[in-house]
Amino acid sequence: MTDHETEEELVKRFLRYVKVPSQSEANGGVKVPSTESQWDMAHLLQEELNALGMADVSLSDKCVLTGYLPANLPTGAPHVPAVGFCAHMDTVDVSLSPVVKPRRVRYEGGDIVLNEKENIVMRAAEHPELAPYVGQELIVTDGTSVLGADNKAAVANVMTALATLAGDASIPHGDIYVSFVPDEECGLWGSKNMDFTKFPVAYAYTIDCCALGEVVYETFNAGSAAVTIQGVSAHPMSAKGVLVNPTLLAVDFVNLFDRSETPECTEGTEGYIWCQTIRSNPSTAVVELNIRDHDKARYEGRKRLILENIEKLQKREPRARVTYTMEDTYGNIADAVTDANRSAIDNLYEAMNRLDITPKTIAMRGGTDGSFISTKGILTPNYFTGALNFHSNCEFLPIPSLRKSYEVTMELIALACEKAK
């Protein structure tokens, strides 16, 4: 296909996918998928994978869709490691409409009127990230929803690559595995429910960050803690010496932490403990904490600090009963890098070099499905979709950047063959 034909195929798929509502809903993994609408997206992709002739196409009871394109190699060719691609099917719920109404615009500078009727405008003064895309065609929202390029740009990318490979027997490649997962936006619950026997790859990629050239192989180590404070309730008329107020103890507990090590006071690779919520009534308070750090030792130190502060609180008020739960959520991708799998990252930079894309390496203050998959021994770095302003009604996708992301995908597949021994 020509560049124009490739762009049109990518755009056609992307527009088809974003028009399928598939918002997820935070519920702590109690139900996966968290919303029924994600099944609609999964069934659409399942039909398309089957139509391409993919092997072992399987949709699990947790809405994880897997399959693979068998290798296409000449007789006597060296072994090519299996490569995987993972993308999430859900879009984020940020209290906007689940229905996406995308449109294409040629950006000539200045403001973009997203919705004239509702007077919703993406103002250039507020969005300097628009400036590099003057003269390019963009896909934007109508201002009432996110666009859903996070992560349906990746779905379109991967599906177009599979269609290209399946339709052209002249392109050599090894086994290409895919996994489309739900509920990434509310805790990586899709990747946590993957059957890795159906994803037997040497390494994998997610395509789940923003502007052209972005590369991520450093993410947070992430965990959570819930601290429950059981107080003693009493009527105010007889409360003296009896009442143990769990709400005030929860405030005391939160104040034991360093206010300079919170999300609003940190950047780059600086970690934090984030008091996300306090829920309380006259007898019980629950404090929910998020724990984040790129450095594994510092991350473990933050977990220990929580336990030390629980002990301090208990000593301060021995009549209260303080309990906790704590769990790891995902790990830093960089901690999974070894000499044996480093080629997954090296190939990413080489692919961009061949395509004249300037890499922008980012230590992500968050995580991807690859952050969890990497803890399972499958190094899974991340690269750009091309879209900007994720989780916003001002999210937009420059079409040339979408094409470049697809070209990186194809180049990675080619490099796996070229470097096979």
Summarize the topology.
Elements: H1 3-18, H2 37-51, E1 55-59, E2 65-69, E3 83-88, E4 103-106, E5 112-115, E6 120-122, E7 137-140, H3 149-167, E8 176-181, H4 189-192, E9 203-209, E10 214-218, E11 221-230, H5 246-254, E12 272-280, E13 284-293, H6 296-316, E14 321-330, H7 343-354, E15 360-363, H8 369-373, E16 382-384, E17 397-398, H9 399-418
Parallel strand pairs: 3-8, 3-9, 9-16, 10-15
Antiparallel strand pairs: 1-2, 2-8, 4-7, 5-6, 7-17, 10-16, 11-13, 11-14, 12-13
Helix pairs in contact: 1-3, 1-9, 3-9, 7-9
- Judged by helices, strands and strand pairing, the structural class is alpha+beta
CATH class of the largest domain: Alpha Beta
Q: Any idea what the CATH architecture of the largest domain is?
A: 3-Layer(aba) Sandwich
Looking at the structure, the CATH topology of the largest domain is: Aminopeptidase
Task: Provide a descriptive summary of the structure in words.
Strands 1-2-8-3-9-16-10-15 form an 8-stranded mixed sheet. The chain has a 4-stranded antiparallel sheet with strand order 12-13-11-14. The protein has helices spanning 3-18, 37-51, 149-167, 189-192, 246-254, 296-316, 343-354, 369-373, 399-418; strands at residues 55-59, 65-69, 83-88, 103-106, 112-115, 120-122, 137-140, 176-181, 203-209, 214-218, 221-230, 272-280, 284-293, 321-330, 360-363, 382-384, 397-398. A hairpin with a 5-residue loop joins strand 1 and strand 2. It has 2 domains: 3-219 and 332-419, Aminopeptidase; 221-329, Alpha-Beta Plaits (2-Layer Sandwich). 29% of the residues lie in helices and 23% in strands. It is globular. Helix 1 crosses helix 3 and helix 1 (3-18) packs across helix 9 (399-418). It is built from 9 helices and 17 strands. The two termini are 30 Å apart. The chain has 421 residues and is α+β, with helices and mostly antiparallel strands.
